[in-house]
Amino acid sequence: MYDENNIFAKILNSEIQCDKVYEDKDVLFFNDINPVSKIHVLGIPKVKCVNFSDFVKKTNKESVFNFFTKVEMVINLLGISENGYRIITNSGKDGGQEVPHFHIHILGGEKIGPKIR
Ligand code: 5GP
After folding, report:
1. What are the pLDDT digits (tens) for 12-59?
2. Quick one: pLDDT at residue 114?
3. In the annotation, is 103 catalytic?
4. Is the CB of 56 under 6 A from ligand 1?
5. For residues 71, 80, 18 and 68, what is the CA-based torsion angle, rounded to 10 degrees?
6. In a domain? residue 113
């Protein structure tokens, strides 16, 4: 069940501010408040979904395609596509998810090594 009071829901309804990287009617990308690499951007769809599985189940092919196309666009915007990057999504307790709104971490700007956040 989606928690309407999760921190990313509050960012989406402007109750909490964020450092925006890219936004349109469907998605929001912003800098992580506690970066684990030189570049650490979070990307979220503007859909009330708890995790990756919930996003896929609640939406449709077009939304999933659109979201990941935007992830790729932001990677280009950040200038990290040539040197490389890591994208991660954590899900649930075993996945180490802290915020229960589906999000992708984009890590880059340096060699990421064994960091797995
Ligand atoms: P998770 O562990 O759920 O995959 O990742 C949640 C991420 O959200 C963490 O990397 C954490 O630093 C980030 N985060 C938590 N609260 C805030 C916030 O208020 N603003 C921003 N920009 N990032 C946050």
Report:
1. 999 999 999 999 999 999 999 999 999 999 999 999 999 999 999 999
2. 79
3. yes
4. no
5. 0
6. no
Please give the tally of structural domains in the chain. Answer: 1
Assigned domain for 24 exists: yes
Judge whether 115 and 107 are in contact, CB under 8 Å: yes
- Per the structure, the complete domain to which residue 25 belongs is given by 7-108
Rounded CA gap, 100 and 102, in Å? 6
Give residue 31's identity as a one-letter amino acid code: N
CATH classification of the domain holding 67: 3.30.428.10
What is the CA(4)–ligand 1 centre distance, in A?
16
Q: Report whether residue 116 contacts ligand 1, using a CB cutoff of 6 Å.
A: no
pLDDT tens digits, residue range 67-111? 999 999 999 999 999 999 999 999 999 999 999 999 999 999 999
CA of 82 from ligand 1 middle (Å) equals 26
Examine residue 40 and state whether it is found in any structural domain, yes or no.
Answer: yes
Structure tokens at 88: 């991660």
Give nearest CA residue, ligand 1 atom 13.
Answer: 32
In a domain, 104, yes or no: yes
